[in-house]
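Quick log. Single chain, no ligands specified.
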Amino acid sequence: MTSPRVNQLTVPSAAASIRSMDLVCLDLEGVLLPEFWIAVAEATGIDELRRTTRDEPDYDVLMRYRLDILDKHGLTLPAIHDAIRDLKPLPGAVEFTQWLTQRTRLIILSDTFVQFSAPLMAQLGNPTMFCHELDIDENGRIRNYCLRQPDQKRKAVKALQSLNFRIIAAGDSWNDLTMLQSADHGILFRPPENMRSAHPDFPVATDHSQLRKEIEAVLEDA
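-> predicted structure:
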């Protein structure tokens, strides 16, 4: 008697691989929102606070400098909130973010602090964001800053790549450099001229329309 035929599932070989999925990592300040510290400088008249990561590549040096100025002038977190609460996204940023989240995945990788950015993120549709935190005392004084981890932008990109994501990254400052270098495709957005000259291999977008075109070209090159 002939045995009934048994249907068998076809099991992929171990060598088979799934095509990488795309994910965009963006800096926040200078790409989607204005620079928070420049807004504080303008509101308080303290010009020293205009110094940003576009000017100082060493983030720890920059933050120690900022904390010293805050202590010198007695500026607390509530005063900073007063200075930045009315900030609006950069022109074109809301429409760009809406397009991007409809087209693919987005994570914001920022060296700002959750105490600064959280009240403003709703304007961008509350995308996922990884950033740092501040150590605040009971009087609102900023005692210190707490990194989520050193070089967090690069490490986040590497971790996402290990999950088989193809990373497209865009940023405007020196603290974005390792993120852009680690990404599968890095894009400079309105960078300072010295950064643009030092890294001519990165494409440059000067507005959100150009940034969209750069990202779209990568997404279509599947």
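The domain at 21-34+89-220 is CATH 3.40.50.1000 (Rossmann fold).
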